[in-house]
TrEMBL record:
Species per Swiss-Prot/TrEMBL record: Hyphomonas johnsonii MHS-2
Assigned EC number: 4.2.1.12
Cofactor: [4Fe-4S] cluster
Designated name of the protein: Phosphogluconate dehydratase
Record's catalysed reaction(s): 6-phospho-D-gluconate = 2-dehydro-3-deoxy-6-phospho-D-gluconate + H2O
NCBIfam families per record: edd
Length: 614
């Protein structure tokens, strides 16, 4: 039935309207592009006989007959399967499930292409992480190559983690005349409790336990197929896909390998067939996703304390549909969106506990009722006002029922009338050192303001060495620069989190300021990240010196330096030395990406959709 919505919150209306006004030219050009490709018949009928023969040659007999006879719609599958990513390993069996489900409703499904999918958990703190952010745009381009065969009437996108989903969304929107449904795989069952995992990591960083104890804890945490269970970028992706409407309701957090998970995959396939121009409910992705969808996704991010990586990904995804969202929009949405969920690192519980407490259906209902989600925005299953439901099995088929009326655990999931905090905990940080973001939802209030001397580092390895040498037992603000997209690809600076956490636990006042990224699951350390313009492009962080007093205030959103402004402006910038970060492990192949990357505060994208480029 859908939740009875209250009147929309005036600030959400204001932000949505200014995004619409700001984007009118680029959005109009985008819609003109996709509407020019609106299908009037099966896509493959535009092909020559030779083209079509190639497209059908590898198919089973029944699919070949229908492709050549043009009787059924054809669904293209873009898959990010590999069996190194635990979250993507379940996708190995999905094409067979999808082909059969499509056949059952008179449709064809073909794997149109595979895209790279790197595991940030494997590359954290390693050289390969310098390719991680760039993989988002490679995935978008690889998806475009698969779909460019132009024989498809709809698309299914199989992806879960970090940069993979944003890359798939960018491609889905650039092929916005096609209906697109996203098909997740779900989180692994819960393993070692997150607080215990963190405790072992910090003991290892202090040299109090050995590598065998650390490996045992990590293996008990990441132990089977499925998404890692903390609320980092991967699970934030799944929340976003649901509130933006790319999922079927309740698809995000059903565990892999279960009958319900397979039934949801079959249902997603069959819904894609219904959404084609031949299915009678034509819903192209580029028409479905609009300014309301982008604001809904941002509201969901704030309400759940989601990954700061989406301050990069949401602008990049929105731009692919001609929509321009800014960090100021993020800050204004955060200011009026209450925090309704505490999932690790914002609390001890994981996404399975969140799902059991009421999950996405409960969350959506609360946000709709508070006037924070626009229920008139469209999703693949209908208006978002109907996404307050959860799936279950009935005679082997998936059906939906109303989400629970009350949270099963108020320590994990709360109503909008009684939230964990009145705002979403993401701050725009601004001042003489540049613009960035700070996630404060997991930072204790007493740690959100730090005034201390700077210690400048040009790599996370240098900070680790200083800690090991005992030089960091004091109050300080770590300025870690030359970590932006133009410098080294903007890797996540994961290795610094345990060190800074130890120092904070020892009673020191510490904060981090960087033009790099932190892990999507970064928690208790006050930090200003994605600072732009980055140091490698002459940004202010290149002029900071050891001993400069930094004033970090994430309550007010200020990032200041106690140096005379004229003196600071006249300082010579520290030189950027690419050295070893530009070669090895294929990094030399990405020099173009480093040179062409956009600024972090606009998504760090390779593409220029908002400037009118294609």
């Amino acid at each position: 039935m859908g939740t009875l919505m209250n009147e929309m919150h005036p600030k959400i209306v204001e932000v949505t309207e200014r995004i619409r006004a700001r984007s009118v030219d680029t959005r109009t050009a985008y819609l003109d592009m996709i509407r020019a490709r609106r299908p009037d018949t099966f896509a493959r009928l535009k092909k020559t006989e030779g083209n079509l023969a190639h497209a059908s040659a590898g198919c089973a007999v029944i699919e070949k007959a229908e492709l050549l006879g043009a009787g059924w719609p054809n669904i293209g599958i873009i898959t990010a399967y590999n069996d190194m990513l635990s979250a993507h390993a379940p996708f190995e069996s999905y094409p067979d499930i999808i082909r059969k489900a499509a056949r059952d409703v008179g449709a064809i499904a073909q794997v149109a292409g595979g895209v790279p999918a790197m595991c940030d958990g494997v590359t954290q703190g390693q050289e390969g992480m310098e390719l991680s952010l760039f993989s988002r745009d490679v995935i978008a381009m690889a998806s475009a190559i698969g779909l460019s065969h132009d024989v498809f009437d709809a698309a299914l996108h199989l992806g879960v983690c970090d940069k993979i989903v944003p890359g798939l969304v960018i491609a889905a929107l650039r092929f916005g005349w096609l209906p697109s449904v996203f098909v997740p795989a779900g989180p692994m069952p819960s393993g070692l409790p997150n607080p215990e995992k963190v405790r072992i990591r910090q003991l290892f960083a202090e040299g109090k336990v050995g590598r065998d104890a650390l490996l045992k804890a990590e293996s008990e945490s990441y132990h089977s197929q499925g998404t890692c269970t903390f609320y980092g970028t991967a699970n934030s992706n799944q929340m976003l896909m649901e509130v933006m409407g790319f999922h079927l309701p309740g698809a995000a957090f059903t565990n892999p390998g279960t009958p319900l998970r397979e039934a949801l995959t079959r249902a997603a396939t069959q819904r894609a067939a219904e959404l084609t121009a031949q299915g009678g409910t034509y819903l192209p992705a580029g028409e479905m996703i609009d300014e309301r969808s982008i604001v809904n996704g941002t509201v969901g991010l704030m309400a759940t304390g989601g990954s700061t990586n989406h301050a990069l990904h949401i602008p990049a995804m929105a731009a692919a549909a001609g929509i321009n969202i800014t960090l100021e929009d993020f800050a204004d949405i955060s200011a009026v969106t209450p925090l309704l969920a505490r999932i690790y690192p914002n609390g001890p519980s994981d996404v399975n506990h969140f799902h059991a407490a009421g999950g996405m259906g409960y969350l959506v209902r609360e946000l709709l009722g508070a006037g924070l989600l626009d229920g008139d925005a469209q999703g693949v299953a209908g208006p978002i006002s109907g996404y307050d439901r959860e799936p279950y099995l009935e005679d082997g088929a998936v059906v939906w029922r109303d989400a629970p009326a009350a949270s099963a655990d108020l320590d994990i999931l709360r109503p909008a009338s009684d939230p964990f905090s009145k705002d979403g905990g993401l701050r725009l940080m601004n001042g003489p050192l540049g613009r960035g973001v700070s996630k404060v939802s997991a930072v204790k209030p007493e740690n959100r303001v730090v005034e201390a001397p700077a210690i400048v580092f040009e790599s996370q390895a240098a900070l680790k060495e200083a800690f090991a040498a005992g030089r960091l037992d004091r109050d300080f603000v770590a300025v870690v620069r030359f970590q932006g997209p133009a410098a080294n690809g903007m890797p996540e600076l994961h290795n610094m989190t345990p060190i800074l956490g130890i120092l904070q636990d020892r009673g020191y006042r510490v904060a981090l300021v960087t033009d790099g990224r932190m892990s999507g699951a970064s928690g208790k350390i006050p930090s200003a990240i994605h600072v732009s313009p980055e140091a490698a492009r002459g940004g202010p962080l290149a002029r900071v010196m050891d001993g400069d007093v930094i004033v970090f205030d994430s309550e007010k959103g200020t990032l200041d330096i106690n140096v005379d402004p004229d003196t600071f402006a006249k300082r010579e910038s520290a030189p950027f030395r690419p050295n070893e970060s530009s070669t090895g492990l294929g990094r030399e192949m990405f020099s173009y990406f480093r040179a062409m990357a956009g600024h972090a505060d606009t998504g760090a994208s390779q593409f220029s959709f908002l400037a009118g480029g294609d």
